Amino acid sequence: MMVKCQGLVKYYRKTLAVDHLSFEVKKGEIFGLIGPNGAGKTTTIKMLLGLTRPTAGKIQIKSGIQIGYSPETPYFPGFLTAEEVLYFYGKLQRLKKTQLVKEISIILKKVNLIDYRTRKIQKFSKGMLQRLALAQALLGSPDLLILDEPAAGLDAKGRIEILNLIKELKEEGKTIILNSHILHDVEQVADRGIILNRGRLVTEWDFRQKMINLEISCTYDSDILEALKSIVKRITPTSNGFEVELLAREQIPDIAKMIIMGGGKIYELKETRNLEKIFLQALGGVR
User: Could you cite one Gene Ontology molecular function of this protein (predicted)?
Assistant: First the structure.
């Protein structure tokens, strides 16, 4: 176990920010931390980092590990270059000069900033600052990475690059806690996760159980419905068709064929994301 939180409570004066929160993060996994604004995610991260003390509860982090942190709104002195920023943070970690110089080049390549290594930070876009924040989190090859909105401000290409990098870091054996409001991003890379609301754990979710949800607008009769029940995990009739939950995307053509061969007509077939639905249900947005 890399991280274990038990009954975390955090008050800011009379305001309750985190309310008896418990969860565990296993070694080598990507753990998603999601919830609306004000859910307590940032406060939880601050407690994990030791930036604020819990009012009550217990945090256990594996002894002897290094932690890398990428903040949601990074700030670096504008007069420094990307290379100088990483050198400064590396020296704070007491990394040897020869090791640091080599590591800076490798990391800047990883986050696609190698061509901007000598550019002043004041000329960086928000997306470039996010990538630089991730780069400084990687200094010293930490065992545990805490990433707070690492894809914020990035365009679609930049987001894909960061998500691919996060996957690569997991393959290297890193443990990652990922805080993001972009549900699709979390669903793409996380193994497990929790949803928070008003400081409380609303639900847990295992992203490794990647079920495929389909909404199908169609005409059908009871025979088609019964036939589909034999091949799908779940089927729920709706006002204009039904929703089905599949174990594999390869089943989609078979389902469409069964509906048409059974005399039905398909007007629309679209895939819906599990996490989005679970998120809305957990917060009371879907009944």
Answer: ATP hydrolysis activity
